[in-house]
Amino acid sequence: MLYVSLITESLRARPQLMFWTAALTQGLLWTVVPALFYAAPPGDLPVVLAVGHEYRLGSDLGPPLAFWLADIAYGVTGGPFGVYLLSQLCVIVAFWAIFQLGRATVGMSQAVLAVLLMVGIAAVWVTTAEFGPAILAMPIWAFVLLHYWRAVGEGRSGYWFLLALEIGLLLLTSYLGFLLFALLAVFTLATKRGRMALRRIDPWLCAAVALLVALPHLAWLADAQDLWMPKLARLITIDPAGGAIDWLRILAGLIIAHAGIIVFGLLASGWGSWRRGAVSTVDRRFIDPSARSMIYFFALLPALVAAFVAAVAEQMVGTDASDGQAWSLASAGPLVVCSGLAVIVAAGSSIRLYRQRLLSVAWVALLVGPPVAMVLAVLLLPWTLAVDLEVLKPADEMGRFFADSFQRRTGRPLAIVAGETRTAALIALEPRSRPSLLRDAPPERSPWLRSADIGEKGAVVVWLATDRAGTPPPSVKASFPDLVIEVPKVFERAVEGRLPLLRIGWGVIRPQAEAAANPVAPLR
Protein backbone atom coordinates (compact mmCIF):
# COMPACT_ATOMS: atom_id res chain seq x y z
CA MET A 1 0.00 0.00 0.00
CA LEU A 2 1.33 3.42 -0.98
CA TYR A 3 1.71 5.68 2.06
CA VAL A 4 1.49 9.43 1.46
CA SER A 5 2.29 11.75 4.37
CA LEU A 6 0.31 14.87 5.12
CA ILE A 7 3.26 17.04 4.11
CA THR A 8 3.60 15.30 0.73
CA GLU A 9 -0.12 15.52 0.07
CA SER A 10 -0.08 19.21 0.97
CA LEU A 11 2.78 19.76 -1.49
CA ARG A 12 0.51 18.47 -4.26
CA ALA A 13 -2.88 19.82 -3.23
CA ARG A 14 -2.12 23.09 -1.39
CA PRO A 15 1.50 24.06 -2.04
CA GLN A 16 1.07 27.74 -1.24
CA LEU A 17 -0.65 26.91 2.05
CA MET A 18 2.26 24.62 2.88
CA PHE A 19 4.73 27.41 2.13
CA TRP A 20 2.97 29.98 4.29
CA THR A 21 2.49 27.51 7.12
CA ALA A 22 6.21 26.76 7.25
CA ALA A 23 7.37 30.36 6.84
CA LEU A 24 4.93 31.88 9.32
CA THR A 25 5.55 29.15 11.90
CA GLN A 26 9.26 29.88 11.75
CA GLY A 27 8.64 33.61 12.02
CA LEU A 28 6.29 33.22 14.97
CA LEU A 29 8.61 30.91 16.92
CA TRP A 30 11.73 33.04 16.51
CA THR A 31 9.83 36.23 17.35
CA VAL A 32 8.08 34.91 20.46
CA VAL A 33 11.01 32.96 21.98
CA PRO A 34 13.50 35.86 22.22
CA ALA A 35 10.75 38.32 23.15
CA LEU A 36 9.64 36.17 26.10
CA PHE A 37 12.87 34.54 27.26
CA TYR A 38 15.69 36.98 26.45
CA ALA A 39 16.40 39.68 29.02
CA ALA A 40 19.06 41.18 26.72
CA PRO A 41 19.40 41.18 22.92
CA PRO A 42 21.55 38.29 21.61
CA GLY A 43 24.90 38.34 19.87
CA ASP A 44 26.07 41.64 18.43
CA LEU A 45 22.57 43.13 18.33
CA PRO A 46 23.23 45.64 21.17
CA VAL A 47 26.20 47.01 19.22
CA VAL A 48 24.12 47.08 16.01
CA LEU A 49 21.47 49.16 17.81
CA ALA A 50 24.06 51.50 19.34
CA VAL A 51 25.77 52.11 15.99
CA GLY A 52 22.43 52.48 14.21
CA HIS A 53 21.27 55.14 16.67
CA GLU A 54 24.05 57.44 15.45
CA TYR A 55 22.70 57.41 11.84
CA ARG A 56 26.09 57.58 10.19
CA LEU A 57 26.65 56.77 6.51
CA GLY A 58 28.97 53.91 7.48
CA SER A 59 31.19 52.44 10.16
CA ASP A 60 33.85 49.78 10.54
CA LEU A 61 30.97 47.28 10.71
CA GLY A 62 29.88 48.07 7.15
CA PRO A 63 27.17 49.95 5.24
CA PRO A 64 24.44 51.65 7.28
CA LEU A 65 21.00 50.44 6.15
CA ALA A 66 20.59 47.47 8.51
CA PHE A 67 21.76 49.56 11.47
CA TRP A 68 19.29 52.34 10.69
CA LEU A 69 16.36 49.94 10.29
CA ALA A 70 17.26 48.16 13.54
CA ASP A 71 17.19 51.44 15.46
CA ILE A 72 13.89 52.46 13.85
CA ALA A 73 12.30 49.12 14.75
CA TYR A 74 13.67 49.40 18.29
CA GLY A 75 12.28 52.91 18.67
CA VAL A 76 8.84 52.11 17.24
CA THR A 77 8.19 49.27 19.71
CA GLY A 78 10.21 50.74 22.57
CA GLY A 79 12.36 47.63 22.87
CA PRO A 80 13.97 44.73 21.01
CA PHE A 81 10.65 43.07 20.10
CA GLY A 82 10.44 45.23 16.98
CA VAL A 83 13.91 44.11 15.92
CA TYR A 84 13.03 40.42 16.43
CA LEU A 85 9.91 40.95 14.33
CA LEU A 86 11.85 42.79 11.63
CA SER A 87 14.38 39.96 11.49
CA GLN A 88 11.71 37.33 10.91
CA LEU A 89 9.96 39.45 8.31
CA CYS A 90 13.28 39.51 6.44
CA VAL A 91 13.48 35.72 6.54
CA ILE A 92 9.87 35.26 5.43
CA VAL A 93 10.28 37.71 2.54
CA ALA A 94 13.51 35.98 1.49
CA PHE A 95 11.72 32.63 1.38
CA TRP A 96 8.88 34.15 -0.60
CA ALA A 97 11.33 35.48 -3.19
CA ILE A 98 13.03 32.07 -3.46
CA PHE A 99 9.59 30.46 -3.72
CA GLN A 100 8.75 32.76 -6.64
CA LEU A 101 12.08 31.99 -8.31
CA GLY A 102 11.37 28.29 -7.83
CA ARG A 103 7.89 28.62 -9.34
CA ALA A 104 9.44 30.24 -12.40
CA THR A 105 12.07 27.51 -12.83
CA VAL A 106 11.05 24.18 -11.26
CA GLY A 107 7.31 24.59 -10.71
CA MET A 108 5.24 25.26 -7.62
CA SER A 109 5.46 21.91 -5.79
CA GLN A 110 9.22 21.62 -6.03
CA ALA A 111 9.55 25.33 -5.19
CA VAL A 112 7.77 24.70 -1.89
CA LEU A 113 9.97 21.65 -1.32
CA ALA A 114 13.03 23.88 -1.83
CA VAL A 115 11.80 26.28 0.86
CA LEU A 116 11.02 23.39 3.23
CA LEU A 117 14.60 22.20 2.80
CA MET A 118 15.80 25.53 4.18
CA VAL A 119 14.72 24.32 7.63
CA GLY A 120 17.85 22.21 7.46
CA ILE A 121 20.22 25.19 7.16
CA ALA A 122 21.24 26.51 10.56
CA ALA A 123 22.48 29.83 9.17
CA VAL A 124 18.95 30.67 8.01
CA TRP A 125 16.77 29.51 10.87
CA VAL A 126 18.81 29.45 14.08
CA THR A 127 20.76 32.73 14.11
CA THR A 128 18.05 35.04 12.77
CA ALA A 129 17.26 36.63 16.16
CA GLU A 130 20.62 38.41 15.82
CA PHE A 131 19.45 41.02 13.33
CA GLY A 132 22.19 42.69 11.35
CA PRO A 133 23.42 43.29 7.79
CA ALA A 134 23.42 39.57 6.90
CA ILE A 135 19.76 39.15 7.90
CA LEU A 136 18.61 42.21 5.97
CA ALA A 137 20.71 41.16 2.99
CA MET A 138 18.85 37.83 2.69
CA PRO A 139 15.55 39.12 1.19
CA ILE A 140 17.30 41.74 -0.94
CA TRP A 141 19.74 39.11 -2.26
CA ALA A 142 16.87 36.74 -3.06
CA PHE A 143 14.91 39.46 -4.86
CA VAL A 144 18.00 40.41 -6.89
CA LEU A 145 18.24 36.81 -8.15
CA LEU A 146 14.50 36.62 -8.82
CA HIS A 147 14.34 39.85 -10.78
CA TYR A 148 17.61 39.11 -12.59
CA TRP A 149 15.96 35.95 -13.90
CA ARG A 150 12.84 37.90 -14.82
CA ALA A 151 14.90 40.51 -16.71
CA VAL A 152 17.55 38.32 -18.34
CA GLY A 153 16.16 34.79 -18.30
CA GLU A 154 12.60 35.72 -19.28
CA GLY A 155 13.44 38.91 -21.18
CA ARG A 156 10.98 41.09 -19.22
CA SER A 157 12.57 44.53 -19.39
CA GLY A 158 10.22 46.03 -16.80
CA TYR A 159 12.22 44.34 -14.03
CA TRP A 160 15.49 46.16 -14.72
CA PHE A 161 14.47 49.18 -12.65
CA LEU A 162 13.51 47.02 -9.66
CA LEU A 163 16.77 45.14 -10.04
CA ALA A 164 18.71 48.43 -9.98
CA LEU A 165 17.04 49.58 -6.75
CA GLU A 166 17.58 46.20 -5.10
CA ILE A 167 21.27 46.06 -5.98
CA GLY A 168 21.68 49.61 -4.68
CA LEU A 169 19.95 48.71 -1.41
CA LEU A 170 22.09 45.59 -1.11
CA LEU A 171 25.22 47.72 -1.50
CA LEU A 172 23.88 49.91 1.32
CA THR A 173 23.32 46.83 3.48
CA SER A 174 26.39 44.59 3.24
CA TYR A 175 29.72 44.41 1.48
CA LEU A 176 28.54 41.03 0.23
CA GLY A 177 26.45 43.14 -2.15
CA PHE A 178 29.62 44.09 -4.04
CA LEU A 179 30.38 40.38 -4.36
CA LEU A 180 26.95 39.64 -5.80
CA PHE A 181 27.21 42.65 -8.12
CA ALA A 182 30.52 41.34 -9.47
CA LEU A 183 29.23 37.78 -9.85
CA LEU A 184 26.14 39.02 -11.69
CA ALA A 185 28.45 40.78 -14.15
CA VAL A 186 30.54 37.61 -14.57
CA PHE A 187 27.49 35.41 -15.10
CA THR A 188 25.99 37.89 -17.56
CA LEU A 189 29.15 37.95 -19.65
CA ALA A 190 29.48 34.16 -19.50
CA THR A 191 25.98 33.31 -20.80
CA LYS A 192 24.42 33.81 -24.21
CA ARG A 193 21.27 35.45 -22.84
CA GLY A 194 23.36 37.74 -20.69
CA ARG A 195 25.49 38.92 -23.60
CA MET A 196 22.35 39.51 -25.65
CA ALA A 197 20.90 41.59 -22.80
CA LEU A 198 24.05 43.73 -22.73
CA ARG A 199 23.28 44.87 -26.28
CA ARG A 200 20.40 46.92 -24.85
CA ILE A 201 20.71 49.97 -22.65
CA ASP A 202 18.66 48.51 -19.77
CA PRO A 203 21.46 46.61 -17.92
CA TRP A 204 23.82 49.58 -18.21
CA LEU A 205 21.20 51.91 -16.74
CA CYS A 206 20.58 49.29 -14.06
CA ALA A 207 24.24 49.33 -13.00
CA ALA A 208 24.32 53.14 -13.03
CA VAL A 209 21.17 53.49 -10.91
CA ALA A 210 22.42 50.84 -8.46
CA LEU A 211 25.68 52.73 -7.93
CA LEU A 212 23.74 56.00 -7.64
CA VAL A 213 21.58 54.53 -4.85
CA ALA A 214 24.73 53.39 -3.02
CA LEU A 215 26.59 56.67 -3.71
CA PRO A 216 26.24 58.15 -0.17
CA HIS A 217 28.01 55.18 1.40
CA LEU A 218 30.56 55.01 -1.42
CA ALA A 219 31.40 58.68 -0.81
CA TRP A 220 31.75 57.97 2.93
CA LEU A 221 33.97 54.98 2.16
CA ALA A 222 36.24 57.10 -0.01
CA ASP A 223 36.55 59.60 2.85
CA ALA A 224 37.19 56.91 5.51
CA GLN A 225 40.62 55.85 4.29
CA ASP A 226 42.00 55.89 7.82
CA LEU A 227 39.58 53.05 8.57
CA TRP A 228 40.37 50.64 5.76
CA MET A 229 43.80 51.64 4.45
CA PRO A 230 45.72 50.17 7.44
CA LYS A 231 43.92 46.85 6.92
CA LEU A 232 44.62 46.92 3.20
CA ALA A 233 48.30 47.50 3.92
CA ARG A 234 48.40 44.20 5.80
CA LEU A 235 47.76 42.21 2.61
CA ILE A 236 51.48 41.77 2.15
CA THR A 237 51.74 40.12 5.59
CA ILE A 238 49.21 37.38 4.89
CA ASP A 239 50.39 33.82 5.43
CA PRO A 240 49.14 31.80 2.39
CA ALA A 241 49.10 28.53 4.32
CA GLY A 242 47.17 30.07 7.19
CA GLY A 243 44.78 31.70 4.74
CA ALA A 244 44.13 28.38 3.01
CA ILE A 245 43.41 26.74 6.37
CA ASP A 246 41.02 29.54 7.30
CA TRP A 247 39.29 29.22 3.93
CA LEU A 248 38.80 25.48 4.37
CA ARG A 249 37.59 26.02 7.95
CA ILE A 250 34.96 28.53 6.81
CA LEU A 251 33.83 26.23 3.99
CA ALA A 252 33.59 23.36 6.47
CA GLY A 253 31.42 25.55 8.68
CA LEU A 254 29.11 26.30 5.75
CA ILE A 255 28.84 22.59 4.95
CA ILE A 256 28.07 21.77 8.59
CA ALA A 257 25.39 24.46 8.51
CA HIS A 258 23.70 22.37 5.79
CA ALA A 259 23.63 19.24 7.96
CA GLY A 260 19.84 19.26 8.07
CA ILE A 261 19.60 19.19 4.27
CA ILE A 262 22.02 16.26 4.20
CA VAL A 263 19.80 14.42 6.70
CA PHE A 264 16.72 15.14 4.59
CA GLY A 265 18.48 13.85 1.49
CA LEU A 266 19.51 10.59 3.16
CA LEU A 267 16.03 9.99 4.56
CA ALA A 268 14.26 10.80 1.30
CA SER A 269 16.57 8.67 -0.83
CA GLY A 270 16.28 4.93 -1.23
CA TRP A 271 19.72 4.46 0.33
CA GLY A 272 19.60 1.69 2.93
CA SER A 273 15.89 1.07 2.41
CA TRP A 274 14.63 -2.46 1.79
CA ARG A 275 11.43 -1.16 0.18
CA ARG A 276 11.56 -0.78 -3.58
CA GLY A 277 7.84 -0.59 -4.36
CA ALA A 278 5.77 2.38 -5.37
CA VAL A 279 6.71 5.63 -3.62
CA SER A 280 5.35 9.15 -3.77
CA THR A 281 7.02 11.59 -6.13
CA VAL A 282 7.14 15.35 -6.47
CA ASP A 283 7.41 16.13 -10.16
CA ARG A 284 8.32 19.22 -12.11
CA ARG A 285 8.18 20.46 -15.63
CA PHE A 286 11.20 20.83 -17.91
CA ILE A 287 13.73 23.25 -16.44
CA ASP A 288 15.38 25.84 -18.65
CA PRO A 289 19.13 25.07 -18.92
CA SER A 290 19.86 28.75 -18.28
CA ALA A 291 17.88 28.61 -15.04
CA ARG A 292 19.77 25.48 -13.99
CA SER A 293 23.10 27.19 -14.65
CA MET A 294 22.04 30.33 -12.78
CA ILE A 295 20.84 28.45 -9.70
CA TYR A 296 24.01 26.34 -9.49
CA PHE A 297 26.22 29.37 -10.07
CA PHE A 298 24.66 31.51 -7.34
CA ALA A 299 24.35 28.61 -4.90
CA LEU A 300 28.07 27.78 -5.10
CA LEU A 301 30.19 30.72 -6.25
CA PRO A 302 29.12 33.32 -3.65
CA ALA A 303 29.93 30.92 -0.81
CA LEU A 304 33.31 29.95 -2.27
CA VAL A 305 34.38 33.53 -2.98
CA ALA A 306 32.98 34.94 0.28
CA ALA A 307 34.79 32.24 2.26
CA PHE A 308 38.04 33.21 0.52
CA VAL A 309 37.49 36.93 1.22
CA ALA A 310 36.62 36.18 4.86
CA ALA A 311 39.77 34.07 5.23
CA VAL A 312 41.89 36.91 3.81
CA ALA A 313 40.14 39.40 6.11
CA GLU A 314 40.84 37.24 9.15
CA GLN A 315 44.50 37.05 8.20
CA MET A 316 44.59 40.84 7.82
CA VAL A 317 42.94 41.34 11.21
CA GLY A 318 45.20 38.81 12.92
CA THR A 319 44.84 38.61 16.65
CA ASP A 320 43.68 42.19 17.14
CA ALA A 321 40.07 41.57 18.12
CA SER A 322 39.32 45.27 18.30
CA ASP A 323 40.15 45.73 14.66
CA GLY A 324 37.49 43.52 13.15
CA GLN A 325 35.16 40.59 13.57
CA ALA A 326 35.81 36.97 12.76
CA TRP A 327 33.58 35.10 10.36
CA SER A 328 30.54 33.59 12.04
CA LEU A 329 27.53 31.53 11.03
CA ALA A 330 25.34 34.59 11.50
CA SER A 331 27.13 36.18 8.50
CA ALA A 332 26.24 33.37 6.09
CA GLY A 333 22.52 33.98 5.56
CA PRO A 334 22.56 35.56 2.07
CA LEU A 335 25.11 33.01 0.82
CA VAL A 336 22.78 30.05 1.38
CA VAL A 337 19.40 31.33 0.19
CA CYS A 338 19.74 29.31 -3.03
CA SER A 339 20.93 26.09 -1.37
CA GLY A 340 17.55 24.43 -1.11
CA LEU A 341 16.63 25.30 -4.69
CA ALA A 342 19.98 24.01 -5.95
CA VAL A 343 19.42 20.67 -4.18
CA ILE A 344 15.96 20.38 -5.76
CA VAL A 345 17.34 21.12 -9.23
CA ALA A 346 20.05 18.49 -8.75
CA ALA A 347 17.52 15.93 -7.49
CA GLY A 348 15.91 15.61 -10.91
CA SER A 349 12.54 16.16 -12.53
CA SER A 350 10.84 13.46 -10.44
CA ILE A 351 11.85 13.41 -6.76
CA ARG A 352 11.02 10.11 -5.04
CA LEU A 353 10.29 10.44 -1.34
CA TYR A 354 11.08 7.37 0.76
CA ARG A 355 10.59 7.19 4.57
CA GLN A 356 7.95 9.88 4.56
CA ARG A 357 7.06 9.39 8.22
CA LEU A 358 10.68 9.90 9.26
CA LEU A 359 10.97 12.83 6.87
CA SER A 360 7.94 14.50 8.43
CA VAL A 361 9.24 13.95 11.96
CA ALA A 362 12.71 15.22 11.06
CA TRP A 363 11.29 18.33 9.38
CA VAL A 364 9.05 19.23 12.34
CA ALA A 365 11.93 18.52 14.73
CA LEU A 366 14.27 20.88 12.86
CA LEU A 367 11.55 23.54 12.65
CA VAL A 368 10.47 23.43 16.29
CA GLY A 369 13.55 21.91 17.93
CA PRO A 370 15.98 24.88 17.85
CA PRO A 371 13.63 27.41 19.53
CA VAL A 372 12.57 24.79 22.08
CA ALA A 373 16.23 23.95 22.72
CA MET A 374 16.96 27.65 23.19
CA VAL A 375 14.19 27.96 25.78
CA LEU A 376 15.50 24.90 27.64
CA ALA A 377 19.05 26.28 27.50
CA VAL A 378 17.93 29.61 28.98
CA LEU A 379 16.00 27.90 31.77
CA LEU A 380 18.33 25.01 32.60
CA LEU A 381 21.97 25.81 31.75
CA PRO A 382 22.43 28.33 34.59
CA TRP A 383 21.23 25.63 37.02
CA THR A 384 23.02 22.62 35.57
CA LEU A 385 26.33 23.75 34.03
CA ALA A 386 26.42 27.28 35.49
CA VAL A 387 26.70 28.78 32.00
CA ASP A 388 26.50 32.58 31.95
CA LEU A 389 24.32 33.35 28.92
CA GLU A 390 24.51 36.90 27.59
CA VAL A 391 20.76 36.98 26.92
CA LEU A 392 20.04 36.58 30.65
CA LYS A 393 21.71 39.83 31.69
CA PRO A 394 19.10 42.38 32.90
CA ALA A 395 19.65 45.01 30.23
CA ASP A 396 16.66 47.18 31.27
CA GLU A 397 17.63 47.29 34.95
CA MET A 398 21.27 47.97 34.12
CA GLY A 399 20.39 50.83 31.81
CA ARG A 400 18.04 52.43 34.35
CA PHE A 401 20.53 52.21 37.21
CA PHE A 402 23.46 53.79 35.42
CA ALA A 403 21.33 56.44 33.71
CA ASP A 404 19.71 57.42 37.02
CA SER A 405 23.05 57.36 38.87
CA PHE A 406 24.65 59.68 36.34
CA GLN A 407 21.72 62.10 36.35
CA ARG A 408 21.58 62.25 40.16
CA ARG A 409 25.30 63.05 40.35
CA THR A 410 25.53 65.52 37.48
CA GLY A 411 22.02 66.85 36.89
CA ARG A 412 22.33 65.88 33.23
CA PRO A 413 21.00 62.93 31.22
CA LEU A 414 23.53 60.22 30.45
CA ALA A 415 25.00 60.99 27.01
CA ILE A 416 28.00 58.64 26.68
CA VAL A 417 28.73 55.14 27.93
CA ALA A 418 32.14 53.48 27.54
CA GLY A 419 34.20 50.56 28.80
CA GLU A 420 33.81 46.94 27.73
CA THR A 421 31.89 47.13 24.47
CA ARG A 422 29.28 44.40 25.08
CA THR A 423 28.43 45.64 28.60
CA ALA A 424 28.46 49.28 27.53
CA ALA A 425 26.23 48.50 24.54
CA LEU A 426 23.57 47.11 26.89
CA ILE A 427 23.63 50.37 28.87
CA ALA A 428 23.35 52.31 25.59
CA LEU A 429 19.91 50.72 25.06
CA GLU A 430 18.48 52.78 27.96
CA PRO A 431 15.32 54.13 26.27
CA ARG A 432 15.08 57.60 27.83
CA SER A 433 18.49 59.03 26.96
CA ARG A 434 19.87 56.45 24.47
CA PRO A 435 23.49 57.42 25.23
CA SER A 436 26.17 57.17 22.57
CA LEU A 437 28.47 54.17 22.75
CA LEU A 438 32.21 54.76 22.89
CA ARG A 439 33.60 51.52 21.47
CA ASP A 440 37.03 50.06 22.08
CA ALA A 441 40.07 51.74 20.52
CA PRO A 442 41.00 52.76 17.85
CA PRO A 443 38.98 56.01 17.77
CA GLU A 444 37.84 55.40 14.19
CA ARG A 445 35.39 52.84 15.60
CA SER A 446 33.39 55.67 17.26
CA PRO A 447 33.53 58.53 14.73
CA TRP A 448 30.38 60.09 16.21
CA LEU A 449 32.35 61.21 19.30
CA ARG A 450 34.98 63.95 19.49
CA SER A 451 37.84 64.33 21.95
CA ALA A 452 35.96 67.12 23.75
CA ASP A 453 32.67 65.22 24.09
CA ILE A 454 33.51 63.20 27.18
CA GLY A 455 34.76 66.31 28.97
CA GLU A 456 31.71 68.35 27.95
CA LYS A 457 29.00 65.74 28.53
CA GLY A 458 30.58 63.29 30.95
CA ALA A 459 30.27 59.52 30.71
CA VAL A 460 29.71 56.28 32.58
CA VAL A 461 32.42 53.64 32.15
CA VAL A 462 31.37 50.03 32.80
CA TRP A 463 32.90 46.55 32.75
CA LEU A 464 32.29 43.05 34.09
CA ALA A 465 33.87 42.94 37.56
CA THR A 466 35.75 39.78 38.47
CA ASP A 467 36.35 40.68 42.12
CA ARG A 468 34.57 42.49 44.94
CA ALA A 469 36.69 45.62 44.47
CA GLY A 470 35.56 46.04 40.87
CA THR A 471 39.08 46.21 39.42
CA PRO A 472 38.82 47.31 35.79
CA PRO A 473 40.41 45.20 33.04
CA PRO A 474 43.70 46.44 31.54
CA SER A 475 42.03 47.87 28.41
CA VAL A 476 39.67 50.03 30.46
CA LYS A 477 42.43 51.08 32.85
CA ALA A 478 44.62 52.12 29.91
CA SER A 479 41.84 54.16 28.27
CA PHE A 480 40.73 55.86 31.50
CA PRO A 481 43.77 55.98 33.84
CA ASP A 482 42.28 58.68 36.11
CA LEU A 483 38.87 57.05 36.50
CA VAL A 484 37.56 56.95 40.08
CA ILE A 485 36.16 53.45 40.62
CA GLU A 486 32.80 53.07 42.35
CA VAL A 487 31.62 50.13 44.44
CA PRO A 488 30.54 47.44 41.93
CA LYS A 489 26.80 47.18 41.34
CA VAL A 490 25.25 43.73 41.74
CA PHE A 491 22.39 42.70 39.43
CA GLU A 492 20.19 39.62 39.34
CA ARG A 493 20.06 37.75 36.08
CA ALA A 494 16.73 36.68 34.63
CA VAL A 495 17.71 33.11 35.61
CA GLU A 496 20.40 33.12 38.30
CA GLY A 497 20.84 29.38 38.86
CA ARG A 498 24.23 28.45 40.34
CA LEU A 499 26.04 31.36 38.74
CA PRO A 500 28.11 33.81 40.81
CA LEU A 501 26.70 37.27 41.33
CA LEU A 502 26.69 39.54 38.29
CA ARG A 503 28.93 42.42 39.34
CA ILE A 504 29.32 45.42 37.06
CA GLY A 505 32.30 47.64 37.79
CA TRP A 506 31.79 51.28 36.96
CA GLY A 507 32.96 54.82 37.29
CA VAL A 508 31.60 58.25 36.43
CA ILE A 509 33.39 60.91 34.40
CA ARG A 510 31.74 64.17 35.40
CA PRO A 511 31.12 66.83 32.74
CA GLN A 512 33.54 69.75 33.03
CA ALA A 513 32.56 73.20 31.83
CA GLU A 514 36.13 74.11 31.02
CA ALA A 515 36.31 71.26 28.51
CA ALA A 516 34.11 73.27 26.17
CA ALA A 517 36.97 75.64 25.56
CA ASN A 518 39.23 72.88 24.26
CA PRO A 519 39.70 72.75 20.47
CA VAL A 520 37.57 70.15 18.75
CA ALA A 521 39.65 67.32 17.33
CA PRO A 522 39.08 63.72 16.35
CA LEU A 523 39.02 61.38 19.33
CA ARG A 524 42.55 59.97 19.81
Task: Tell me what you see in this structure.
With 524 residues, the chain is mainly α. It has helices spanning 6-13, 15-37, 45-52, 65-77, 81-105, 108-117, 122-125, 133-153, 160-171, 176-190, 192-197, 202-213, 215-223, 225-233, 240-257, 259-268, 289-317, 339-347, 356-384, 395-410, 421-427, 453-457, 474-479, and strands spanning 280-283, 350-353, 416-419, 436-437, 459-464, 489-491, 502-509. The chain is built from 23 helices and 7 strands. The protein has a 5-stranded mixed β-sheet. The protein has a two-stranded antiparallel ribbon with strand order 1-2. It is globular and about 75 Å long. The N and C termini lie far apart (76 Å). The model is unreliable at 319-324 and 514-524 (pLDDT under 50).
According to DSSP, the number of beta strands is 7
Order of helices and strands: HHHHHHHHHHHHHHHHEHHEHHEHEHEHEE
Show unreliable segments. 319-324, 514-524
Question: What proportion of the residues form beta strands (DSSP E)?
Answer: 5-15%
Q: Please state the structural category.
A: mainly alpha
Mean pLDDT: 87
Strand order of the largest sheet: 4-3-5-7-6
The percentage helix is 55-70%
- Envelope shape: globular
What is the terminal separation in angstroms?
A: 76 Å
Question: How many helical elements?
Answer: 23
Q: Radius of gyration, Cα only, in angstroms?
A: 25 Å
Main sheet characteristics: 5 strands, mixed
